[in-house]
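Structural biology now treats backbone shape like a language. To illustrate, our science desk offers a sequence and the tokens encoding its fold:
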Amino acid sequence: MPSIPDCPKFQSCNAPVCPVDPAWVRRLNRKEDSTCFYLCESVKHGSHALFQGAGLEGLYKIISRVTPAIARRHSRIKRALERAQQTDSRMARRVNKCAGGET
């Protein structure tokens, strides 16, 4: 099971609510706070395959399990996830670029 340091963005992330953090339920989310990149990516169409392609399937499983609870507890994150569902995946561009799909 991945832990917080196993997240590729752990060192640079400033989102207070981390879906990999077992104590996320005790974290606050304020107006100015960021939303976890991988949490937003996990709600997009085809995200499971993207996480698999990036070697992050374990991370996806954890995030998928806690996403509904995070959305219920944090209305700002819920709205961010609703917006994220309507946009293209930034992760797909990275996976495609690494696989030689882009130049």
Remarks:
- Residues 9 and 73 are 23 Å apart (CA to CA).
- The chain has a mean pLDDT of 89.
- The chain has five helices and no strands.
- Residues 57-73 form the longest helix (17 residues).
